[in-house]
Please model this.
Amino acid sequence: MRYAIHEVRMTDHLPPRIYLSTPHLGELERRLVGDAFATNWVAPLGPHVDGFEAEFADVVGTPHAVALSSGTAALHLGLILVGVGPGDEVLVSDLTFSASVNPIVYLGARPILVDSEPGSWTLDPDLLGRFLARRAAAGRVPKALILVHLYGQSADIDPILDLCERYGVALIEDAAEAVGTTYRDQSPGTFGTIGAYSFNGNKIITTSGGGMLVSPDRRLAERARKLATQAREEAPHYEHTEIGYNYRMSNVLAAIGRGQLRVLDDRIARRRANFAYYESTLGELPGIGFMPEAPWGRHTRWLTCITVDPAAFGADREAVRLALEDRNIEARPVWKPMHLQPVFQGAECVGGSVGEELFERGLCLPSGSNLTRDDLERVVEAVQEVAFSGVAAVR
Ligand SMILES: *Cc1c(COP(=O)(O)O)cnc(C)c1O
Model:
């Protein structure tokens, strides 16, 4: 009880909390979920799952989509589908969320972490090219690459796809943060052998939790569907010839996803408008930079990420984050690179200094599509106050 009283006191004087990125649902989603209830289709699978798969396939431009319980499940199955097993090596972007790397370890394979390039913050194709040339000369080419599209921005897919084809590396795209993103007018996730998307609660559209696996290859998609359904064989009884998983999406959540898909363009427009507002108000402050939008496509600005140069700004990223927290505003450092994570100590890394600096200086600002103008103004005022306070807070 003392804890509860303490909590009340802590938040009593504070304005309502502004979060980094929250679900943004509407009436359409409520109606579709109502339909799932009314028709008693609340079990896993059902007509909304089929509909969501077909509509999602249409939106991203892929022939085959399989709705799953999470983006992580899509990556896990993707690795199995391209034949990754114990002892194999898998390349993966270093600057990412741990869910990009965990499924490699589930399979007893070893991650090799590849650094970003500063122009897009995504995987550096030159660094990858030099590494693969060295490994090919030694006769040790990794089996697959998990390429991460970061914060709503596509990686530079063309040169990376060329390298994968030249060296025989299977390309799995982690497009969890890139629903609605484009690369040369095409959706990232549809270039490789497998693409994985996420509808987790903090993503640009959500089913509360969920994911999608896409592939240009019908056989791979069918195999994903089977593995995700406990690897049941076609038989009236329960027949199994391999190990499966319980990874399919429920019909209720697919109903939410269908509604969310129809407002995707609006959600992108709103997140991009958040970015434009932050850029126009904070862009003139000395020492504040923004994640660049690469020339090859549309950045959805799922999250607006700034960089803080402490020498020019007079305070560091952490001082800005704490100033926001003091005003009950959630902001988070850019992903801590995987090679700095205790759990991945010992993993081979290719470069790493670019990601380290982005982590040191980078901050993700509140970016939800449901933020109000007042919310955005509160964020901006808080950052401006740090800039103008003259209190040097450099650690
Ligand atoms: C969110 C995320 C995932 C995992 O998706 P879930 O649906 O939460 O399992 C994987 N990779 C990246 C880069 C993500 O941001």
Observations:
- Confidence is low (pLDDT under 50) at residues 1-6.
- Residues 264-282 form the longest helix (19 residues).
- The pocket of pyridoxal-5'-phosphate is lined by residues 70-72, 96-97, 99-100, 148, 174, 176-177, 198, 200, 211 (CB under 6 Å).
